[in-house]
Amino acid sequence: MAAAILGTAIFAAGGWGFAAVLFAFFLPAVALSRLGSRRKAAIADTDKRKARDARQVIANGGIAAACAIAYAFTRSPVLAAAFAGAFAAAAADTWGTELGTLARSAPRSIVNFRAVARGLSGGVTAWGTLAEAGGALTVGAVAWAAGIAPWWIVGVAGFAGALADSIFGATLQALRYCSRCRRLCETDPHLCGSATSLVRGWSAIDNDTVNAIATLTGALAAGGIAALYTAAF
Ligand SMILES: [Zn+2]
Fold it and tell me: Distances from the Cα of 8 to the Cαs of 4, 14, 202, 208, in angstroms?
């Protein structure tokens, strides 16, 4: 229901072009999350494996919806770019997570290059990084085709958002430990039902919070570059 409200608000605010950008994020995200889902469930041990809930929908689409609504009142091309940048960040993060988790290479922490368990936040691989670029550019191409913003602005902003996601995922986001399963995880309680203890980060900051920060980064980067670009040319 949250997704339906968000989608309707975006369509009402920006019309078919904005809706196309929403689908450029949403449809590949659904397809990629189903790809190799059984293998991913065995590897990744995080709340990302849960069915999508309202908090998750708002974390991924809330900033974009706010930009779309602000655009409806101002018709500012900077806000249109920010809207696309927010979804490009969400797409980049989703592609990186879904495809990067399937890659057989071992992820390393983006901040200290130490090995990280596959599927946990903050770990990066070459494949995952390439997938992030693919997700950002897919949304960029659709935004460009819909006349919303130049593809490269949206692509760069989406990649910047995914980078912020990895950095905050490796530092501020709560990393927890389940003493029953003897493994690291990101939820309390763990999927097994046992309480977990905090190992690193802030307990209030979970994957949804970090996703919201990433989409905000994407929106600010796209809006900022678009503003500079408009001022310069
Ligand atoms: Zn457990």
Answer: 6, 10, 34, 22
Residue 49 Cα to ligand 1 midpoint, Å, equals 15
Tell me if the pTM is above 0.85: yes
Contact present, 186 and 175 (Cβ < 8 Å): yes
What residues are paired with 69 via a beta bridge?
Answer: none
Q: 175 C-alpha to center of ligand 1: Å? A: 13
Question: Which of 138, 61, 49 is CA-nearest to residue 101?
Answer: 49
Q: How far is the CA of 183 from the centre of ligand 1 (A)?
A: 7
Residue 121, domain member (yes or no): yes
The domain total for the chain is 1
Q: What is the DSSP letter of 173?
A: B
Q: In which domain, by residue range, is 214 found?
A: 2-169+205-232
Cα(103) to ligand 1 centroid in Å equals 24
Whether 181 is in a domain gets the answer no
DSSP per-residue letters across 12-34: HHHHHHHHHHHHHHHHHHHHHHH
Distance from residue 174's CA to the centre of ligand 1 (Å): 16
Distances in Å between the Cα of 120 and the Cα atoms of 41, 98, 109, 174, 193 are: 12, 12, 10, 11, 19
Q: Can you read off the two tokens belonging to residue 133?
A: 């670029």
Task: Tell me, yes or no, whether 127 lies in a domain.
Answer: yes
Tens digits of per-residue pLDDT, 57-69? 999 999 999 999 9
* 185 lies in some domain: no
pLDDT per residue as tens digits for the range 203-217: 999 999 999 999 999
Single-letter amino acid, residue 114:
R
> Which tokens sit at 92?
């980049």
